Amino acid sequence: MQHLNDATRTELEAAAFRRLLKHLDEHKEVQNIDLMILADFCRNCLSKWLVNAADERGAELDYDTAREYVYGMPYEDWKAKYQQEATPEQFAALEAHQARKQEQEGT
């Protein structure tokens, strides 16, 4: 993508991000803990990344507003409708993932 100018690259990146959000919205059955286990990020991470990007550019964006954008609704509403209780197996998988990550960072 180096052959693209900055504006075009930014537009493509933004379009891909919007498509990622749409995909996550279409797959509400995918829980945040599953995303963390498999990909080391979740919807909340995306929200935090948006807030950090805004901070870096001197723009105001609070975490709740960013989460509402990522979730497509207020977080508490999404949580009540779609978030399932994490299973012991999911917690164990997340702990194992985090341990592997720490081990890799230590090497």
TrEMBL record:
Domain annotation SMc04008-like: ranges: 30-95
Gene3D superfamilies noted in UniProt: SMc04008-like (1.10.3340.10)
Taxonomic superkingdom: Bacteria
InterPro entries, A to Z: SMc04008-like_domain, SMc04008-like_sf
Pfam families given in the database record: DUF1244
Protein name stated in the entry: DUF1244 domain-containing protein
